[in-house]
Amino acid sequence: MSQFKTTLSFTFSVCALGVALYSHFNQSPVLSSTPDVQSAENASLQGHSERYTPVEAGSLVNKQQHIEQLEEQVRYLQERVLELENRFFSASSSPEALEESVLAILEKKEQQERAEHRQSNPVYGFYEDLPDDYEMRLKTDPEYADKLGRQLQQKVLDESLPVIDRLSAMGQLQMNMYVLNRTQMDTMSYDTVDAVIKISRGQYDDKLRVQALDVVAQTPVVDARIARSLLDIVEKEENDYMRATAAEGLMSQYYQANDEQYPGLKRQLANDILKLYDNDIDNQVYNLMQRMIGDEDLLDQIRKDANK
User: Fold this and answer.
1) CA atoms of 234 and 237, how far apart (whole Å)
2) Coiled-coil regions in this chain (predicted)?
């Protein structure tokens, strides 16, 4: 408000100055109405007509130019004052409209940020869109949790959907398992995990492939087919990070397997791990498995399980 008053006062001052200068340059000499004086002046002008120089004519032209410039400046300043008045009174007369405009801008910016976050991190981009009571509803409403789980599974399996949407559904499905403190769910099946592993091995950009493998490498679903896919990635994938992630996933499958629930699977996994560890062709794979196993005690246990 104070800034507007200052601007307005300055503008009016400039206008007043312009008007004053305009009046000064535009004044005409006052002629006497006395006939004798008029005759004397006419005679004087005639007497000096021959001495009227181009310099004096140029001076009159310059004065006229100054007057035109001042007139133009006055018009501009008047328009500027009117614009400032309209802007000020329009804003001050409708604070609700101004508030709505600001909120709309902030909402648009927030939507853009969410879209960028979802694009850069599709697996967990869904998180910001969840309602505040999402986790509590999962825990207190089994019917809602089961229905939502089936819907998310169908999204993961639906190859007609964009890959980003399928990865987001997988990330949400896996998060729901942790929220519900479950290690097994019907909707988190081999088919669900395999669909995401296929994305990690498909013709997509590295960002999508890496995130697809990240979300299933530590899956609680234990299956010989999943282990075989992870082994194949370790042996054939060119991306070093993905090879290391697949190796971690293979070790996770080994830790979770037990003879009671998965007869013969632990032995198979132990042999697969030793196959990679004893690799004398690919030093990168050998070094990777050395880092995964870490110590002699674990290595001895793997050799023991391989010979069962």
Assistant:
1) 6
2) 60-87
Residue type, 194: D
> Does pTM top 0.70 for this prediction?
no
What span, in angstroms and rounded, lies between the C-alpha atoms of 255 and 247? Answer: 13
Domain residue limits at 130: 98-221
CA distances from 102 to 73, 91, 94, 99, 109 (A): 35, 12, 13, 5, 11
Q: Give the Cα-Cα-Cα angle 210, 213, 216 (nearest 5 degrees).
A: 150
Q: Among residues 221, 255, 278, which one ends one of the domains?
A: 221
Helices within the chain (DSSP H only): 2-25, 35-47, 54-93, 95-120, 134-140, 142-157, 163-179, 190-200, 206-217, 224-236, 240-256, 265-277, 283-293, 296-306
Q: Are residues 239 and 169 in the same domain?
A: no
Q: Note the pLDDT tens digit of each residue in 23-80.
A: 555 554 444 444 444 444 444 444 444 444 444 555 666 777 778 777 787 788 878 7
